[in-house]
Every structure is written in structure tokens, then in C-alpha cells.
Specification:
This protein is an alpha/beta fold. It has two domains: 118 residues, Nucleotidyltransferase, domain 5; 163 residues, Nucleotidyltransferase, domain 5, CATH 3.30.420. The chain has twelve helices and ten strands. The radius of gyration is 20 Å and the shape is globular.
Amino acid sequence: MVTSRRLLGLDIGGSSSRARLVEGTRIVAEAEGPGANVAALPPPVVADRLAALLGGLGEIGADACCAGSAGAEIPAGRERLERILTDLLPGCRITIVHDTRLVLAAAGLDSGIALISGTGSVAYGHDLDGREARAGGWGWLIGDDGSAAWLAREAARAVMRRSDAGAPLGPLGDALLQATRARGTEELVGALHGLTEPGEWAALAGVVFDTAGADSASASLVEDAAAGLSELVAVVRRRLALEGPVVLAGGQLLNQPRLEAAVRKHLGAAVRLDEPPVAGAVRLAELSLEN
């Protein structure tokens, strides 16, 4: 790496975003902020959140920036993000990738499979021939099986089925009512319909893990999440004829031991991502100047 180069990495997720500015081997500045999914949020909201995130770095002066973003697989979202960053970072070479690509780069791997479960979920593979495959990552409204947003939604469905049947809501239902400050299931439905961002749904997933030892529905949901995540990896393995290595990433997967253990039972050998994904964004920014 040329020491005079300044490289900016951005990891733009559904719940949170992170920026890292590097010069040579030195981290000059880092900043964190709320999620800014370009496919789920209005462009002005994305622009305001990214402006605040970059403002936390001080003077930037980056030669290259790589932004790994949730929603970047959608062409319109990718173009919006590129325009926003071009305005915020004049004179900087901008590269936009889906946030899954950051995981393998952060792990220092040129070939492997990344499995992410955070606000959303997705598996991404890249082999030594340059072939890529992705499974999942459809977004919280229609997919993201095994993600935090999915888990919260499925928990709400389980509780409402109990309510319809006139059965006790159980520890899961009680915890969900408490988390949403609802006094009953009618208020619960109203509170949930008031959530407009995937990160707001994802924030409720903790009730499933908190009650998994006391509620059979919660325990089953964790197992279902693990099965769904493992199937994403299986799809990528089949498409690329690539076994691994498999890198586990994402706030939910890395911070919920019960889910990680269940996923490992399905997958076998896997490694945890030690570096934050934003480190992969910096690495890809550097590579963009060499190509």
C-alpha cells in the first residue's frame, strides 16, 4: 500500500453503518452511525445518515472509497448510493459492492463462502476462477430467512397464532408484549405495523433468544433460523461446487451463541469473522486503485 494514499471503507447495513479511514497501515479515523439501506430507505434519509457518518471522520481526502451496502444488489439502489457518495466525496474513486463481499475481503480470503445473519441474511461465495454466487438477501419483506428481522416477524406470527387459538401467549408472547410496550395482542399488532424499518424489527429478535430455554416456540424458531441459514450456504456450495471455507458474520450470528451452535451443526467446519467487515471495504478500496 502506498503510504500517501488515503482509503475509505464503508460498511452500510440495515441496522448500523461503520466508516474507517486508513492511510498506509494507520487507521486515521473511524465512525459509526445508523443503518442506511439504499433499497429500504428514502434517498434523502440515506444521504443525511451518510453525511453524518462521514462527518464523524473529520477531514477525509480519500483517494478511493469502497462502500459495501445492504440493498446494493438492486441496480436503482446502487445508482442512488453512487450518486450520494459522489456528491459527498468529490474527487474520490467510488466502488459500490453488496455488503456480503466485505466479509471474505475482511477475512483475507480470495475464495470461500460468507454467511451473514444480522438485520438481514445472505450467503455469498467467490471461487478462485472469479465466479460468484449469492443466495438469499431478498430483503426483509419477502425473505431474509434466519435474519433478526425474520426471527422477530416469525415470533410475532407464533404469538398471534396462540392468541387466535385462545391459548396462553407463553414466555415468548409475554416478552414480545413487554418489548413493544403492548398491553395485549391487539396493541401488539398495532405496534408492529408502526415499525417501518427492518432495523426496528431486528431489534425485537432478542426476545426469541431470551426465551428459548423456557418456550418451545422460541427454541423451534432458533432451529428454523439455523436451518434456513444453512440452506443458503448449501445453495452457494451447489452452484459453485465449492465447500468453503465458510466464514460466519453478522451481528446476530456472531452474538447469539445458541444460533451459532445450531448453524455449526448443519454446516460443519466454519470460522468466525475476526475483523470487522469495514476492514474488507478498505481492502477493496485499495484493490480498486490497482485495477
